[in-house]
Amino acid sequence: MASEIVVLPGDGIGPEVTRAAVATLQAVGRRYGHDFRFQTHLIGGAAIDATGEPLPAATLAACRQADAILLGAVGGPKWSDPSATVRPEQGLLALRQALGLYANLRPVRPHPVALGASPVKPHLLAGVDLLVVRELTGGLYFGEKQRHADRASDLCEYSVLEIERVLRRAFGFARARRGKLVSVDKANVLETSRLWRETATRIGREEYPDVALDHQLVDSMAMHLIARPRDFDVVVTENLFGDILTDEASLLAGSLGLLPSASLGDGRRGLYEPIHGSAPDIAGRGIANPFATMLSAALLLRHSLGLEEEALAVELAVAAALDSGALTADLAAPGQAVSTQAAADAVLERLE
Ligand code: ATP
Ligand code: MG
Hints:
Blueprint: E1 3-10, H1 14-32, E2 36-40, H2 44-51, H3 57-65, E3 68-73, H4 88-98, E4 103-108, H5 122-125, E5 130-135, E6 145-147, E7 152-154, H6 160-176, E8 180-185, H7 191-207, E9 212-217, H8 218-227, E10 234-237, H9 239-250, E11 260-264, E12 270-274, H10 291-303, H11 308-323, H12 340-351
Parallel strand pairs: 1-2, 1-3, 3-12, 5-10, 8-9, 8-10
Antiparallel strand pairs: 4-5, 4-11, 6-7, 11-12
The structure holds adenosine-5'-triphosphate and magnesium ion (MG).
Subcellular location: Cytoplasm
EC number: 1.1.1.85
Binding site for NAD(+): 76-89, 277-289
């Protein structure tokens, strides 16, 4: 059966890196005999320029029909005038919301070539292999906001249902990995965090007794993540804490150009994108690192299409390309960098 994949290149380096990821999926399709069909649509600044809207109806309709969505990046200086009423980023938020993609996954497994580029000491990083699961559609970012002349407020609200569904996802991943889950909250101060912790404890006891559940307060977790990153397997947390901890965790990997992400809902459909932005400073020069987006394609194979062997093949091919010295400017020694295309080719030739 054919798989329908919607490709949203977006802005800046988005088109350059998604091209490499589509080529990756095509190579996998040829090698393993899968029929992947691609449809490209507009999002972000490119969509604003063409239609006036960051998420055109045609794009959303195509995404609703798709098995999976591969995205580059959105945004850039052209659309970031403070007086602008429509922004590229709104397109992405609206898409996640419309598709109910409440669980954001960011795996971090530093490759040896990137260890020197991390601010964390290499001996602490060897063997790090963690997965951060962030709740993406609730909490402070979506609660009622009020602004008065001399004060402002943002409501943080979570329902048991919202907590349960993201926790079940995280417990499931922990069970399939090394069986360890750390749930991060601020239960000594926040009511939403107390509900989060109670819910995690209950689900763990009733449904995942085989997974070792630990709770951490977000402030101490921020330290542990740098001081002993090797100790973690799956880490799950709410929206705001996850936003901060995932950026922190990205430092462990050395370069933004190596980190993929997946956003999942209840079904299999997911949205896959590199964690980096549109990198306007290097856009159009053919020097961006395509690996984060190629690794996002691997997550697409794993989580939306259920193709674990194929996903692993992509991950191994990227690791082998890095081992062979196919390093773009973000990772290479001065004068040694290869182009986006050459880095992508080093992966593709290993997949053919
Ligand atoms: P956003 O607000 O969209 O998250 P940002 O301002 O955080 O964007 P990025 O666009 O991610 O920033 O870029 C941050 C820095 O990292 C820039 O200097 C950019 O050139 C670099 N960078 C990001 N992605 C890549 C990549 N794939 N390859 C090489 N360098 C990259
Ligand atoms: Mg950013």
